[in-house]
Design goal:
This protein is mainly alpha-helical and 454 residues long. It has helices spanning 2-13, 16-21, 33-47, 60-83, 87-110, 116-147, 166-177, 185-200, 205-222, 227-256, 260-269, 284-301, 311-319, 328-361, 365-387, 394-428; strands spanning 24-26, 29-31, 436-438, 444-446. Helices cover 70% and strands 3% of the residues.
Length: 454
């Protein structure tokens, strides 16, 4: 667990500039610190002999997710070979995809017992906070360059790691609406302010959209409260969040001596409108749609297996940059075909469902809290994949992969505990509490609405 925590912390805090500055080439292939740490933790988990909780079976979503991703890697290599792409051209793309199954395996094996749910939840939340703190320092440093005359676009060039505090902010919103105390109240408030700066301080449109929808998902969908409280807390949260954002905009304007509000509204928020023009100031459709259409065209030429790793580089080398790979779904279709698309979507939707069921079904509060965190992270991954170059890259792919693996493992342990609890209660004559019952013939029957398989 220690090396896992170090890996997650490094991935959440190190900047891309740092990783590039200290990467080494071995056999002509570039390797960075995270490559080494991932390999080390993978080997540790592979060779670990420590006792762990024995679940009834390996969760099927783990098997499906890893199998589809490994198959996609072979499809990507085959497609690249057919297109005549050299190994050196696609090694980075292959590494980025290989990170996902490796991370899922690590996550699945690092959660050894049901108690691990509590440990990994707090490790994840503290690393999310660390990511937001680092982003705050990076914003502070970049603001000096803006003050000296550079454009606010310099803020968009900040190359941070982690989720910038998004999972922690969403988890705190979920806990607040559900009346669950995770941290002391004053500390939670400070954390929420820091995370708000981390999420919205860097002017990326995708971050704005993902942040807003994730916070709404945590408050309205995940929260364990009646709808009156959910809606009331959401309304109050919007007021508080708006105040924080207006305060942040004013603070940035004061810090740089420039009008940050006009920049955000004119250059970033208006561009979210699909028909915004004002003399071709770029819109979302103008920056994303050409790449999506190009990838769909590539896929149509090889609809079964795609055209392999690094096909986007070959296309853009011929016709110019179009923002390819910024939609993970069409990028997967272009490179690996439908199997590659399934390889991304199966663990994402599987983790959302599994996380929600852990939250709904659990009598263990720590497993329930971990379920909420898993559902939040998978929901974020869904938006990341739809809006930007993200989970098809090393760092965010590693992050979501670790969560997928842990979620599938904890769910498998939860189902085993439920079965054992039901069996022991049947033997003692007590009424079931885990969603199971025994009929008069001694067979196990499932309560309506409960799940015993996923």
């Amino acid at each position: 667990m220690f090396l896992f925590a170090i890996l997650l912390l490094l991935n959440s805090t190190l900047t891309n500039d740092f990783l590039f500055a200290y990467r080494k080439e071995i056999g002509g292939f570039p390797l960075n610190i995270l490559d080494g740490m991932l390999a080390l933790v993978f080997l540790q988990q592979l060779l670990s002999t420590r006792n762990k909780f024995r679940a009834d079976r390996v969760h099927p979503l783990f098997i499906w997710s890893v199998s589809l991703l490994v198959l996609s890697i072979f499809i990507g290599i085959a497609g690249a070979a057919i297109q005549g792409t050299g190994a050196r051209e696609y090694v980075t793309a292959m590494r980025n995809l290989l990170v996902l199954p490796a991370s899922i395996f690590i996550g699945y094996t690092v959660a050894k017992t049901p108690r691990s749910a509590k440990t990994v939840t707090y490790i994840w939340l503290w690393c999310s906070l660390a990511s937001a703190v680092i982003v705050m320092f990076l914003i502070r440093g970049t603001s000096e360059a803006v003050r000296e005359g550079k454009s606010f676009d310099e803020l968009r060039l900040i190359r941070y790691g982690g989720d910038t505090g998004l999972t922690l902010a969403a988890f705190l919103v979920f806990a607040g609406v559900s009346r669950i105390r995770v941290f002391p109240r004053y500390l939670s408030r400070v954390m929420l302010v820091i995370c708000t700066v981390g999420i919205f301080g860097v002017p990326h449109r995708g971050s704005y959209v993902t942040g807003v929808f994730t916070l709404l998902f945590a408050a309205l969908v995940l929260a364990r409260a009646n709808w009156g409280r959910r809606l009331t807390m959401t309304f109050l949260g919007i007021i508080v969040m708006s105040s924080l954002l207006f305060g942040g905009v004013a603070g940035m304007s004061q810090l740089t001596g420039r009008d940050f509000k006009t920049y955000v509204v004119e250059r970033r928020l208006k561009a979210l409108l699909p028909f915004y023009d004002e003399e071709t100031k770029t819109t979302v459709t103008a920056t994303r749609l050409p790449g999506i259409l190009a990838e769909l065209k590539v896929w149509s030429e090889s609809p079964v297996i795609g055209k392999g790793f690094a096909i986007s580089s070959r296309v853009e080398a011929e016709v110019g940059a179009m923002g390819m790979n910024h939609n993970v779904w069409t990028s997967a279709l272009a490179q690996y075909g439908p199997i590659g698309l399934a390889a991304f979507l199966v663990p994402i939707f599987g983790c959302i469902i599994v996380g929600y069921r852990m939250l709904r079904d659990s009598t263990d509060p720590h497993i329930a809290m971990f379920g909420a965190l898993a559902a939040i992270m998978a929901f974020v991954a869904l938006f990341w994949g739809s809006l930007s170059l993200s989970i098809n890259q090393q760092r965010l792919g590693m992050m979501v992969g670790l969560m997928f693996g842990m979620a599938f493992r904890v769910r498998a342990m939860q189902l085993t505990l439920a079965r054992e609890g039901a069996a022991s209660q049947y033997e003692s004559g007590a009424s079931p509490e885990y969603g199971y019952d025994y009929n008069e013939y001694g067979g196990m029957a499932q309560h309506p609405g409960d799940s015993v398989h996923t």
